[in-house]
Amino acid sequence: MKDMVNLPHIYYGQEEAAELERASLRVQQIYDKTQEFLERYLPASLWPALTGTNSDSEAQTTRHSKQGCGTFQKWVKSPKGWKCIGYEKYVHSLKKPDTADNTGIPGVLLQMIIWSQYEKIQLLHPFLGDEPFYSEQEMDVISEYFVPTYTSPMPLKEKGKDFKEIQARIPLYQEHITAPSLDMLSEGVSVSGSWMTGVDLSAKGFAGLRPYLKVSKGERTYMKAFII
């Protein structure tokens, strides 16, 4: 049975909101750390393929174009707790989601790279002579909040997991985390979809919750977040 909200509002408990704020900042630190590493050591020949740039000069522009960008993380409340399925970046105001920043590594692709490294560290940690790339605390954050994402569906099939295919620069396969279904009644019109929680981050840190209803064809109907 779907939940029903009579107004475009979603209520979050104080502990729930505090967890999302804390988790989103820790997750973003891992995103940023990984992207900075790739920007520093990724061969120039591979950078355009990951970012969609067409030349070395464009790649250089991409590497230095992140100042002033806002980040919009996408979270799902699953039976096992909150899960982050990726993020998007925006060039201008966080209040204008149509001003997407398409430079840099797409969020879901970076998620795949993080998950791949996480599994390698889990498997090889007893044999690693140096300190692993992710600390023990970061590994705990990845385990708790990140969604398994791969370049092949086989790891998910082998574990009997439902998955979805995502078209980024390359096809990616992410474990499907079912978002709660929701009917929203606004101005006498009923809108059905999946309830998602967006978390806005700015250069100063956490910038608020922005829940939305994901409807057909990936369209979004944004709602207000109230903390109770």
Fold and architecture overview:
By secondary structure, the chain is of the alpha+beta class. 32% of the residues lie in helices and 33% in strands. It has six helices and twelve strands. Helix 1 (14-41) crosses helix 4. The two termini are 24 Å apart.
Quick take:
The protein has helices at 14-41, 47-51, 56-63, 107-124, 136-145, 154-158; strands at residues 3-5, 9-12, 70-78, 81-90, 149-150, 163-167, 171-175, 181-186, 189-202, 205-214, 220-222, 224-227.
Number of self-contained structural domains: 1
Helix-strand topology string: EEHHHEEHHEHEEEEEEE
| Residue share in helix | 25-40%
Strand content range:
25-35%
Largest sheet: 7 strands, mixed
Q: Overall 3D geometry?
A: globular
Mean pLDDT, to the nearest integer, reads 82
Radius of gyration: 18 Å
Distance between the termini: 24 Å
Return residue spans where pLDDT drops below 50 for at least 5 consecutive residues: 55-65
List keywords for this structure.
globular, three-stranded antiparallel beta sheet, 12 strands, 228 residues, alpha+beta
Secondary-structure map:
Elements: E1 3-5, E2 9-12, H1 14-41, H2 47-51, H3 56-63, E3 70-78, E4 81-90, H4 107-124, H5 136-145, E5 149-150, H6 154-158, E6 163-167, E7 171-175, E8 181-186, E9 189-202, E10 205-214, E11 220-222, E12 224-227
Parallel strand pairs: 1-8, 2-12
Antiparallel strand pairs: 3-4, 3-9, 5-7, 6-7, 8-9, 9-10, 10-11
Helix pairs in contact: 1-4, 1-5
